[in-house]
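TASK: fixed-backbone design
INPUT:
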C-alpha cells in the first residue's frame, strides 16, 4: 500500500483536480484499489465531486461521518485513541474519507500540556502520527491511499507528510504558483528531520521511512503546436533545478471545466478538448505509478 500526499502551498493550482483524476485513473485503467482522504477542510472539493449530496452538510459542518477531526480530538481531550473512521464508496469506484471543516481548528496548541518535557514531546509525536494510524488500521486494504490537502503549511499538513510514503506537488506553470514548490520540499525535509530526532530521543522503536518528494506536476499548461509554450517550458526547467518534475502535464481547457461542472471525471466527458485532457491524465497516472510505486 502506497500513501501519497498531494500538497501545495498555493491554492488554485489544480491540486484537487489532479488528486481526483489520478485516483479514478488508478482504479479504472490500472485496476488498483484506491482510498482518497479529503483533508482540504476549506473547499472539500473531492468530497463534493464524489458525494454531491454531502455538500450542504459539509458547508454547515454537520457531516454524519466519523472524520479525521474526531481522531485529533481524542488527543486534545486525552481520551482513548480509536483509529476507526467512516469510509464511503463512490460511484467511480474509489473509496473516500470525506472532508471536515473542523480540521481548520487542528493545532498542536490544543494538546494537553504538562511540566514533563518528555510527555509533551510524546504528545507532539502522537499528533504527527494521527493520520498514519488511521491508515495503518485499514490493514493494507488498498493499493493506494491519496491524500488531498489544504494549501497551507499547518499541523494537519505535517501529519499528512508523516503519513505519506511520497508527496507530489501539482503546480500551475507560472512563477507565482511554482515558487511554493521549494517550500513544500523544505517542509517534507523538516518533518523527516523532526521524526528522526524524536525517534532518537522519545521512541527508538518507531518505524518510519522518510517521506520522499516524488515531483511537481504541471497543471493548466498552455501549448503551442503540441508542446508547452516558452514561458511554461522555462518554468519546468526552473522547477527541475529544485527537484523532480513529472514529464507528463495537463493543459488548460474546457474539458476539465465541464467535468467539474457535471461532477464527473474528464474521462466521461465528450469533446476534443476533454479527450486530450483525458489522455494527459492517463499519461500522468502511468508516470505516477513509476514515481510512487
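OUTPUT:
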Amino acid at each position: 500500500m502506497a500513501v501519497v500526499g498531494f500538497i501545495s502551498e498555493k491554492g488554485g493550482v489544480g491540486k484537487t483536480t489532479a488528486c481526483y483524476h489520478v485516483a479514478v485513473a488508478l482504479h479504472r485503467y490500472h485496476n488498483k484499489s484506491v482510498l482518497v482522504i479529503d483533508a482540504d477542510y476549506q473547499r472539500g472539493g473531492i468530497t463534493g465531486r464524489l458525494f454531491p449530496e454531502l455538500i450542504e452538510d459539509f458547508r454547515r459542518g454537520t457531516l454524519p461521518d466519523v472524520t479525521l477531526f474526531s481522531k485529533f480530538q481524542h488527543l486534545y481531550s486525552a481520551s482513548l485513541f480509536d483509529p476507526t473512521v467512516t469510509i464511503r464508496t463512490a460511484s467511480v469506484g474509489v473509496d473516500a474519507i470525506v472532508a471536515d471543516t473542523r480540521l481548520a481548528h487542528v493545532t498542536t496548541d490544543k494538546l494537553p500540556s504538562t511540566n514533563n518535557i518528555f510527555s509533551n514531546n510524546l504528545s507532539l509525536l502522537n499528533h504527527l502520527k494521527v493520520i498514519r494510524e488511521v491508515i495503518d488500521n485499514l490493514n493494507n486494504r488498498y493499493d493506494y491511499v491519496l491524500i488531498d490537502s489544504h494549501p497551507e503549511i499547518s499541523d494537519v499538513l505535517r501529519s499528512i507528510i508523516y503519513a505519506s510514503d511520497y508527496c507530489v506537488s501539482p503546480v500551475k506553470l507560472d512563477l507565482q504558483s511554482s515558487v511554493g514548490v521549494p517550500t513544500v520540499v523544505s517542509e517534507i525535509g523538516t518533518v523527516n528531520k523532526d521524526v528522526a530526532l524524536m525517534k532518537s530521543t522519545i521512541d527508538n522503536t518507531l518505524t518510519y521511512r522518510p517521506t520522499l518528494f516524488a515531483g511537481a506536476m504541471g497543471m493548466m499548461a498552455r501549448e503551442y503546436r503540441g508542446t508547452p509554450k516558452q514561458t511554461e517550458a522555462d518554468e519546468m526547467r526552473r522547477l527541475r533545478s529544485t527537484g523532480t518534475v513529472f514529464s507528463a502535464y495537463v493543459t488548460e481547457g474546457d474539458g476539465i471545466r465541464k467535468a467539474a461542472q457535471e461532477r464527473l471525471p474528464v474521462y466521461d466527458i465528450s469533446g476534443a478538448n476533454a479527450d486530450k485532457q483525458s489522455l494527459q491524465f492517463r499519461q500522468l497516472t502511468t508516470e505516477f505509478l513509476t514515481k510512487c510505486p
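COMMENT: The chain has one domain: 2-219.
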